[in-house]
Specification:
385 residues; alpha/beta; Rossmann fold; 7-stranded mixed beta sheet; 5-stranded parallel beta sheet; 14 strands; disordered N terminus; signal; Peripla_BP_I; Branched chain amino acid ABC transporter substrate-binding protein
Length: 385
């Protein structure tokens, strides 16, 4: 009798455990949470967490416990791909928000693809992120072939540059962006007096010497704030006040800290992550973000939030189409690609056949005395496919 009672209690416990596991739904985030780019990666993670906090009651009504599982990719493709494989092995994870770096997104999304794990990027701009045609890869930001020409238009039109020096950080992101800028500048008749890639992080004296000799009217650097900030600090230290233009990799509050307030002028960047003052619905978001994390939100925090909201709404849509039961990864993947998502900070989101946002906006920011000031905004559409 005791043995039977014990067996029944064990079976009941196992049954409860199985039921509990079935009612847990997770999404994952992949972004740099340590290292030189952790400022932006933490913003993405926190934005995603805020969205999860807000969506949890809706999931609870359907009988699901909702969780975010953050992974640190250290801005490294190998680390990010290893994280993707761990995510694929956890059957409770139905979708992924990430990454920050295109060089990480490309192999990570390929590792997730066989499991039909949808990925919604708040940041990746390299053309090849979506040009590969993966069914699971989507992004809510503009591509390099939109952002690059916008940067070139600003250099040629607003800065009236006749000569430009183009640099990149030798990553998929930096090379892709700088390549698009260089191509567009040449088409506008701007002379490229120097073009090179560098992985240097601390000593830019040889590049600065070339810049002194060629005397460009503008410098374009495709890369991330932690590297470019050091470059600008040394450039200004050498007495060169030439405008420096970059992409959304400069969109971090750490940039003027690295450069130093005295040198944090005459810096411009295009960004896919809207400055919060450009987003009508951002006041409530900013207050909630500050309250939740004791940290001021930045553009990538807002876009991490929007990418997570697209992800979570896609899961809910798939669950409701599945008679309010936990959907499969394939069902979620299809719901995200085919859905139209409203109520986002950055406006309505829907994707084309390869996962590019059908309509996005680019912003040009001006760094003045260490502060980011909105210069202009520009609506863009992805190329037809």
């Amino acid at each position: 009798m005791k043995k039977t009672a014990l067996s029944l209690s064990v079976l009941a416990a196992l049954a409860l455990g199985t039921a509990s596991a079935q009612t847990t739904i997770k999404i994952a985030s992949i972004s740099p949470l340590s290292g030189g780019q952790s400022n932006l990666g933490t913003q993405i993670r926190n934005g995603a967490q805020l969205a999860v906090n807000e969506y949890a009651p809706q999931f609870k009504k359907l009988g699901f416990d909702l969780k975010l599982i953050p992974y640190d990719d250290q801005a490294d493709p190998a680390t990010g791909t290893a994280a993707a494989r761990k995510i694929a092995a956890d059957n409770q994870i139905l979708a992924v928000v990430g990454t920050l770096n295109s060089g990480v997104a490309i192999p990570a999304s390929a590792a997730l693809a066989p499991s039909n794990l949808a990925m919604v990027s708040p940041a990746n701009t390299a053309n090849q992120v979506t040009d590969r045609g993966l069914a699971n890869m989507n992004r809510i930001v503009a591509r390099d072939d939109s952002q690059g020409p916008a940067g070139a238009n600003f250099i040629a039109g607003n800065l009236k540059a006749k000569k430009a020096y183009v640099l990149n950080d030798k990553t998929a992101y930096g090379e892709g962006l700088a390549g698009e800028v260089e191509k567009a500048l040449k088409a506008k008749g701007v002379s490229i007096v120097g073009s090179e890639g560098t992985e240097e992080k601390s000593d830019f004296s040889s590049i600065i010497a070339k810049i002194k000799l060629t005397r460009p009217d503008a410098i374009y650097f495709g890369g991330i704030y932690n590297q470019i900030g050091v470059f600008i600090k040394q450039l200004r230290g050498a007495g060169i006040t030439t405008p420096v233009v970059g992409g959304d990799g400069l969109d971090s509050s750490e940039l003027p800290v690295i450069v130093g307030k005295a040198g944090a002028n005459n810096i411009y960047f295009t960004t896919v992550a809207a400055p919060l003052e450009a987003l009508p619905a951002a006041k409530v978001f900013a207050a909630n973000f500050q309250k939740s994390f004791n940290l001021a939100p930045q553009g990538f925090g807002a876009f991490g939030y929007d990418a997570a909201k697209v992800t979570l709404q896609g899961i809910l849509d798939a669950a409701r189409a599945n008679n309010n039961k936990a959907p499969s990864r394939k069902q979620v993947q299809d719901a995200i690609r085919k859905g139209t998502f409203k109520g986002l900070l950055s406006g309505e989101v829907s994707f084309n056949s390869v996962g590019d946002r059908k309509a996005a906006t680019l912003y040009v920011m001006n760094v003045k005395n260490g502060e980011f000031v909105l210069e202009t905004s520009l609506p863009v559409k992805p190329p037809k496919n």
